[in-house]
């Protein structure tokens, strides 16, 4: 129930965000972004700060977070194969090298990677539904408590 409570909270926050942008788009006759609305509401400098906080900071922090996630996944899936933080650094070096060669490399392999991703998702779904890797367990014992008593 904790997960469901978190999803309901995220839905409420997303709705507030959507309603705020809807109200702003009705208040100002021209199309706008976060910078446009902030500039018209409270000035140029806060608009610059909001764009920096909304886009640049998120972009800068996304790569380290994703690298930590890759490291955590590799350490769980393949324990002891690579030393800590070497896998993400190798991936980063590979992407850096291919970017220096040119972005055409990414364009050429994008279809192959998309096909591999979709195939892996389909294969995972078929294995999970069919129980091919291991049979579905027989459920017994206590049922799920659908109350929010443990959440709040």
What does this protein look like?
The protein has 152 residues and is an all-alpha fold. The chain is built from 5 helices and no strands. The protein has helices at 2-27, 34-42, 44-77, 86-101, 104-130.
Q: What structural category arises from helix and sheet content?
A: mainly alpha
Run of helices and strands: HHHHH
Radius of gyration: 23 Å
- Determine the mean pLDDT: 83
What keywords describe this structure?
extended, single chain, 5 helices, 0% strand, 152 residues, mainly alpha
SSE layout and pairing:
Elements: H1 2-27, H2 34-42, H3 44-77, H4 86-101, H5 104-130
Helix pairs in contact: 2-3, 3-4
Question: Briefly, what is this?
Answer:
The chain is mainly alpha-helical. The chain has helices spanning 2-27, 34-42, 44-77, 86-101, 104-130.
């Amino acid at each position: 129930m904790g997960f469901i409570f978190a999803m309901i909270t995220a839905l409420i926050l997303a709705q507030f965000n959507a309603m705020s942008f809807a109200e702003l788009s009705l208040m100002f006759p021209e199309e706008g972004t976060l910078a446009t609305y902030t500039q018209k509401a409270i000035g140029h400098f806060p608009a610059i700060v909001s764009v920096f906080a909304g886009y640049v900071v998120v972009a800068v922090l996304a790569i380290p977070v994703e690298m930590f996630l890759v490291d955590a996944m590799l350490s769980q899936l393949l324990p002891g194969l690579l030393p800590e933080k070497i896998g993400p650094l190798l991936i980063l070096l590979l992407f850096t090298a291919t970017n220096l060669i040119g972005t055409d490399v990414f364009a050429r392999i994008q279809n192959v990677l998309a096909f591999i991703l979709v195939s892996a998702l389909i294969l995972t779904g078929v294995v999970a539904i069919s129980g091919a890797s291991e049979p579905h367990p027989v459920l017994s014992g206590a049922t799920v408590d659908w109350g929010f008593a443990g959440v709040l």
